Structures are given as C-alpha cells and as structure tokens.
Amino acid sequence: MQNRGFFGTHQHHLISTYFQVNIMLTNRLSNLNRYQAFGLHFLGSAAVITCIFCFIKFVWYPHQLFEVANGLELLKILILVDLVLGPLIMLVIFNPKKKSLKFDVTTVLICQLLFLGYGVWSLYTVRPVYLAFVEKQFVLVKANEIEDSDIAKVTVEKFKQLPQLGPQFVGTQLPDSQQKREEILFAGLGNMGIENLPQYYVDYAHIKGQVLAASKELSQQNLDDTSKIQLESIRQDFEKQGKKVLFCPLKTRSNKLFVVIDASNGDALTTN
C-alpha cells in the first residue's frame, strides 16, 4: 500500500521534538531525584502526545472517523506505553548516584522514541483516505485497503497518490468492459469493491446529481432515537445558516454514519 512521503517530513519533525524534549533528562542528572525525573519525563511525554493526538484527531481522522476507524484503540496503546510505562520505568531506574545513569536514561528514551514512531506509523497506514460514493451511499476507504498495483493503474493525476491531510470525497464509475465489471463484482464479495480501486475514481463534482438522488431528509431516514437527536441538531445548525440539508449514508466496517449534503447543490458539508 502506498504510504510514503508524508511520514518522512511531518512525523519526523514531531518525533524529533519528542526526543529533544525528553533528552533534557540526560543533562545535569545528578541534580535530579527520581521523582523530579519522573515528573519531567511525564510532562515532556504528555506535551508531545497531546500534539500528536490533535494532529491525528483533526487531520487524519476528522469528526466521527476517529472512533469508527479504530483510531482510538491504537491511540490508547500509544498513550499506555509512551505516557504511562515510559515515565514509570524512568521512576524505577533513575538513581543520580549510578555511574550508568546516562546510558540507562538514554536507552529508555530511545526505546520510547522507537515505539512512538511505530505507533504513529501504524495510525498513518490505516488512516481514512477516501469517502467514495458507490451506488447509493458513501464508503469509508482506509490507506491499507488500496493496493499499490491499483494505484499504478490510475490515469487521473490527482488520484495517483493517497491523500496525506485527511480523507477526500470522490465518486466511482464502472468500466465499460463487461469482464472488468464482473471482476469488480466478484471482488466486492470479499469486501473489496470498486471503492478500493482508485483507477475508477472520478471527481466528486461529476457525481453530485447521484448523491442528491441518494440523499434523504431526516424524516425519511430509519434511525434510532440517539441518531435522530444528533442529526436533528446538525440540521438545525445548518438551517440557522440558511442551508437546507439532506443526509446520505456512509458505510464503515463497524457501523453506519451519514454525510451531510447541501440540498441546493449536492456539496458535502462538514460539521463542527
């Protein structure tokens, strides 16, 4: 799967900052006791984890996608190791009288740094990249659900690389070849349909009419009470802005969400 480029720039900077913040513990170690070292380590880790969390939550996994795309579960593991276990290990091993203290502290920081890099990389490789419209609904597509071999078949320039800064809305168009249509249908039986084949993507602007036809008013949706309350609040917020909205289903692996659609032009709208 194609996940190159972005990690080597932005994430390198975050991890570099993390290392610089925590490496301060190796300076003037003899003036610290174990509790001060623990506190500094915890604060440094918390600051970096907070920055990483904000980026992941608001850029890679915006809105409710953080929960439905399992971003929360991966982040919990990241926090457990880098915000809890790391400082606790520092508390246990730190002794200003040890001759090997600098080596011990550096080892802890390097191990923690490596795990942090692995955790962020894991979140990056499974980030949502597309909300692809297929037939009468949108489908959430993750980075690891698109093969490099399929990206190599893309002819439209904008779809030759996976989005790096959050998921994009796209349309899909079946090929003219009956054989290829049957291949797509067969692949769909294994939960890998046309939404996973970027060579069949089209600009969202081309399928707005289809989206409008598939979208319904809130009163026409079959929803539980909790979902009705949430969507009604969204509808009222847009109504205050002078916009009438419709709702189009968004299929994910775990549950069904809805994309808010501008009833006047078919644009996909974002909520706060």
3D architecture notes:
The protein is of the alpha/beta class and 272 residues long. Helices cover 49% and strands 14% of the residues. The protein has helices spanning 7-23, 34-60, 65-68, 71-93, 101-125, 148-151, 178-188, 208-214, 225-240, and strands spanning 128-134, 137-142, 168-172, 201-203, 245-251, 256-262, 268-269. A seven-stranded mixed sheet has the order 4-3-1-2-5-6-7. It has two domains: 7-125; 128-269, no CATH class. The mean pLDDT is 84. It has nine helices and seven strands. The two termini are 31 Å apart.
Strand order of the largest sheet: 4-3-1-2-5-6-7
Please, what is the average pLDDT? Answer: 84
Portion in helices:
40-55%
- Beta-strand content bin: 5-15%
Number of strands: 7
Number of helices in the DSSP assignment: 9
The overall number of domains is 2
SSE arrangement, N to C: HHHHHEEHEHEHHEEE
Q: Characterize the largest beta sheet: strand count, sense, and whether it forms a barrel.
A: 7 strands, mixed
Described by the principal axes of the CA atoms, the overall outline is elongated
Over all CA atoms, what is the radius of gyration?
23 Å
> What is the distance, rounded to the nearest whole angstrom, between the alpha carbons of the first and last residues?
31 Å
Unreliable runs, pLDDT <50, ≥5 residues?
none
Structural class: alpha/beta
Brief characterization of the structure:
This protein is of the alpha/beta class and 272 residues long. The chain contains 9 helices and 7 strands.
